[in-house]
Amino acid sequence: MDTVRVAVVGAGVIGLSTALCISKLVSPSSITVLSDKFTPDTTSDVAAGMLIPHAYADTAIHKQKQWFRETFDHLFAIANSTEAGDAGVHLVSGWQIFRNLPAEEVPFWADVVLGFRKMTEAELKKFPQHVFGQAFTTLKCEGLAYLPWLEKRIKGSGGLILKRRIEDLWELHPSFDIVVNCSGLGSRELAGDSKMLPVRGQVLKVKAPWVRHFIREGSGLTYIYPGASTVTLGGTRQKGDWNLSPDPEMSKDILSRCCALEPSLHRAYDIEEKVGLRPFRPDVRLQKELLVKDGRKLPVVHHYGHGSGGISVHWGMALEATKLVSEWVHALRNPAPKAKL
């Protein structure tokens, strides 16, 4: 086998970053991304894109920290380059605030973000309902800019991007040697994974150019994230809800909660309602599987189930998924000798 043919199913931030990593690190290879949805119609386009890790209960902390650090370093390099504007990546400073003392005053990711410290009493006066807070600088990755930027780089390295709905991974055999399943919620059907559930998130995108600092309640349910052109106000977390239509009452509640933290948002204008379905799974699935059917074999790497934390770990996990692809490539290029009868 010379050039290995890899299909990546899914074109959110997980699929595109994994495809780009494979194109850079697996050689020689040809990469094809297949999806029925592309930017601006993916969950990644709705996401606020703040690098504040979501904790995965069944994943070792050192592994989560590695994924976050690799992602932070990757995006920090972009933020410090001439590509920052095109990629939609920039630094943003702000506060994470708590109504009660958190179990962990210093989270595992504190030494990855920049300038992490406990908030002063003077700073906390801004938030009279809160007793504790953390101040730090992190990165914001705007999906509406970052996804097209990733697509451009995939195409620039010779990859193909095709709009096609995949109903069964076997459709890709024998055209491809390896399939990488980054289909998110689509894995309920594609991988028969009943653990996959939507967690509905509704946000408001508003114009409030005077808001420069992020504010996030420790629960992660209420947040104000300033971006390049809009401020994202959130949010909701509705497990098992597939409804993509905005709920006006929820929008009122989101705006009310955010105005309680930042009263100047009463003057926000050009308010847009957005809904995304986070691809929730009790634990992220990142593993190899050999599908076998009627004597045919299809090597697969599953990479999905990141919930609300995908952007914070996408590059680190894409690097790990690429290692699994490399293991399949090695197996295909060096098949085990058949035992003699």
UniProtKB/TrEMBL annotation:
<dbReference type="GO" id="GO:0008445">
    <property type="term" value="F:D-aspartate oxidase activity"/>
</dbReference>
<dbReference type="GO" id="GO:0006533">
    <property type="term" value="P:L-aspartate catabolic process"/>
</dbReference>
<keyword id="KW-0963">Cytoplasm</keyword>
<keyword id="KW-0274">FAD</keyword>
<comment type="similarity">
    <text>Belongs to the DAMOX/DASOX family.</text>
</comment>
<dbReference type="InterPro" id="IPR006181">
    <property type="entry name" value="D-amino_acid_oxidase_CS"/>
</dbReference>
<dbReference type="GO" id="GO:0019478">
    <property type="term" value="P:D-amino acid catabolic process"/>
</dbReference>
<dbReference type="InterPro" id="IPR006076">
    <property type="entry name" value="FAD-dep_OxRdtase"/>
</dbReference>
<dbReference type="GO" id="GO:0071949">
    <property type="term" value="F:FAD binding"/>
</dbReference>
<keyword id="KW-0576">Peroxisome</keyword>
<dbReference type="GO" id="GO:0005829">
    <property type="term" value="C:cytosol"/>
</dbReference>
<feature type="binding site">
    <location>
        <position position="278"/>
    </location>
    <ligand>
        <name>D-dopa</name>
    </ligand>
</feature>
<dbReference type="GO" id="GO:0005782">
    <property type="term" value="C:peroxisomal matrix"/>
</dbReference>
<keyword id="KW-0285">Flavoprotein</keyword>
<feature type="binding site">
    <location>
        <position position="223"/>
    </location>
    <ligand>
        <name>D-dopa</name>
    </ligand>
</feature>
<protein>
    <recommendedName>
        <fullName>D-aspartate oxidase</fullName>
        <ecNumber>1.4.3.1</ecNumber>
    </recommendedName>
</protein>
<dbReference type="Pfam" id="PF01266">
    <property type="entry name" value="DAO"/>
</dbReference>
<comment type="function">
    <text>Selectively catalyzes the oxidative deamination of acidic amino acids. Suppresses the level of D-aspartate in the brain, an amino acid that can act as an agonist for glutamate receptors. Protects the organism from the toxicity of D-amino acids. May also function in the intestine.</text>
</comment>
<feature type="domain" description="FAD dependent oxidoreductase">
    <location>
        <begin position="5"/>
        <end position="323"/>
    </location>
</feature>
<keyword id="KW-0560">Oxidoreductase</keyword>
<feature type="binding site">
    <location>
        <begin position="43"/>
        <end position="44"/>
    </location>
    <ligand>
        <name>FAD</name>
    </ligand>
</feature>
<dbReference type="InterPro" id="IPR023209">
    <property type="entry name" value="DAO"/>
</dbReference>
